[in-house]
Amino acid sequence: MSAPRKRRWSGVLVLAALVAAGLTAPVQAAETPTLTPIPADLGKGIQGRVSPTAQDLPALGYTEEEFKVEGTATSYTADGNLGSDGKWNVKPASQAPYTTRVVVRRPTNPAKFNGTVVVEWVNVSFGVDIPVEFGQSWEEFVREGYAYVGVSAQKVGIDKLKSYDPVRYPDVTTPGDAASYDIFSQAAKAAGQQLNAKRMIASGHSQSALRLVTYANAIQPRDRIFDGFLIHGRSTGAAEIASGQSTPLISNIRDDLGVPTLQVQAETDTLVYSISRQPDATNLRTWEVAGTAHGDAYLTESLDKVNAREKIIDNGNPVRCDKPLNAMPAHYAHNAAYHALDQWIRTGKPAPRAPRIEGLGPLLSRDGNQNVKGGIRLPDIEAPIASYGPTNSGGNVPGACLLLGTTTAFDAAKLRSLYPTHAAYVTRYTAAAAKARDAGFLRPADYTAAVRAAQARPVPPA
């Protein structure tokens, strides 16, 4: 792979031109919309806005801002067959005005910005913007100096802004989700200019991942906004381009995309996605992380804190399921994925290849501890103290528990049979953590945190 492109953004807010030495002009450059700061104290304020972060960003050396984005969005329609190879062509169908918002989080000290902006297609599966990628990987973003942009691109999320705080978001509007792809392009381009981005990564989780598959296959070749894609937690297929224009059940990432793409799949995701696995290729890697759930205890704890303030989902009550939520630290692998993708873009060295989870669909192979075989092996599954399941049941939020997985703790007798002494447990855990770190699936800082957590666990019980 050739050296990554260097992107420089000139201008600050509106109609600035893309200039990069040696960069081929886009087939069709996305418009650059008007970007207007939203006052921090307007309406319920930035701390009371839809989907604030649970983290104390100023204490972490980060600044959070919110901008109104206004422009004219193009909706597309398919131009020819939508094949399983992902080589999809689209053509403009209509144009209409829109107004939405973006959330920008960046190092307060500009010298700490690493030049890479992660642009998240914010998830709206539960009727409100949920920034899953920031919730999972904020520690990596903060310690490495990434800037983050959360884009409200879809109608259900944009409409919720107005109903939640009509003073702060009085005029947000969208012509519909057919325009979401161009809204995402425009918002990312404007935010990149604002931040003087050198590299832009598009990311999204679950239904947003399906949107990104369609975006990568149909829109990126036209707009060329992004230097890489992190597609997280997709099922099989992809999102429709326009109403009634469904995509194939098996929708590959096109092999001529030309920028690094990393797919990260939880064990939950493989239950559906495994029937349409795509081999690794020059610009594509897929990581399947054993023992992990589509959503988990780590993410849910953070989102529960936010929801307690907003009271948008189930009047702010915490998520409850029939069994304890999946506690496998999937965010460790997510952090490693962002680092690997960023380095791939910077240096041309591809992200490491990873073994796939063994089995297909519901027939995944399991070991004697009822943990899945194969895949990326975090230390918590190589030195297990529980069985980690991909789905749960029951719950107070319809549909959520199916995605949040389970943790079934081993009893004292089993723990003692596996680990006669605490030192035996720590030794096994530390060796597994070192193996994952050396393979590129665990960041050094997370290795240290994981080993310290293992040292503090009362395993086996006294």
UniProtKB/TrEMBL annotation:
InterPro entries referenced in this protein's UniProt entry, alphabetically: Abhydrolase_dom
Residues in the signal sequence: 1-29
Domain Alpha/beta hydrolase: 47-451
Molecular function in Gene Ontology: hydrolase activity
Keywords: Hydrolase, Signal
Record-given protein name: Alpha/beta hydrolase domain-containing protein
